[in-house]
């Protein structure tokens, strides 16, 4: 019989690590299971400036997350690198299964986060890693002195486009409207950047190339006009980065009885309870209005505190 943890947390982004910190400090036996690297989406974020108490000059996501991980370790939280692919959440003891192990817990905190939404154009899958990317921090250096296009108009698109100007010769943001969604302070910096250009009212419909991405068709949504852009002859390729929001990582919860909304996010009350007793959700994976590191961390703290309360009441 394997150990029954007080709390098993799925996901080691800011929500999962904050939950781990609070559960560990409450002396609950706690395990965090993460299939990849710690940090979730901020593992690929170049600069964070708005997490209260962080270094004022700004710091990278991995730098901030390393300290969160260290805090969990300090308070005795156990770690497993594993991919959960099956579970029973309804009973008093929750069971989580991977290909190699089975984990048991009195409570589960789901902090699986979200992943980049695909651009949704023809050829996107084919050119992934051959010109198409969703992570500037990971792939910007492949485009040193090349031309790059960024799809989207929110904070991520504009901030990552600015980051890409440090590498690319020219960066053009392609946005489906004629006005950005990004915060005004971010827009102000972007409009001052002389390597950054904007293509308004436009969506990418098709990507092409011979092995590497070298051709893109863009549709003007107001006029319906289609324009095809070819890579500069000397370059032979260009980059397209997609930053058009995220989709929730909730596929593994299908058929578990866990309630999801129509977009696949987990609805909770303000104390992070899902519809299943003893199962909580925290961070980007839940239905909420603001997905930031600070709100994810707050969710994690609440979820762990509620998990402790639930255990005490059983
Ligand atoms: P977002 O705010 O949801 O913005 C998504 C952008 O993509 C919007 O401009 C949207 O256009 C566009 N879009 C959506 N679907 C599209 C489609 N199918 N085709 C073309 N364009 C499409 O997403 P985000 O920028 O990733 O930000 C997510 C959250 O993280 C937000 O809460 C944001 O504030 C936060 N964030 C904060 C920071 C920061 O504070 N420094 C940095 C990054 C992210 P419309 O505008 O027309 O809807």
Characteristic terms for this protein:
2 domains, FAD/NAD(P)-binding domain, 27% strand, 314 residues, seven-stranded mixed sheet, binds NADP nicotinamide-adenine-dinucleotide phosphate, alpha/beta
Structural class: alpha/beta
Here the CATH topology of the largest domain equals: FAD/NAD(P)-binding domain
The domain count comes to 2
Specify the CATH architecture of the largest domain: 3-Layer(bba) Sandwich
CATH class group of the largest domain: Alpha Beta
Q: Based on Cα principal axes, name the global outline.
A: elongated
Strand content: 25-35%
User: Helix and strand succession?
Assistant: EHEHEEEEEEHEHEHEEEEEEEH
Mean pLDDT, as a whole number?
96
Largest sheet: 7 strands, mixed
The distinct bound ligands, ions and cofactors come out as: NADP nicotinamide-adenine-dinucleotide phosphate
Helix content: 10-25%
Number of strands: 17
Question: Which stretches of 5+ consecutive residues score pLDDT under 50?
Answer: none
What's the name of the CATH homologous superfamily of the largest domain?
FAD/NAD(P)-binding domain
Oligomeric composition of the shown chains? single chain
Any idea what the radius of gyration is? 21 Å
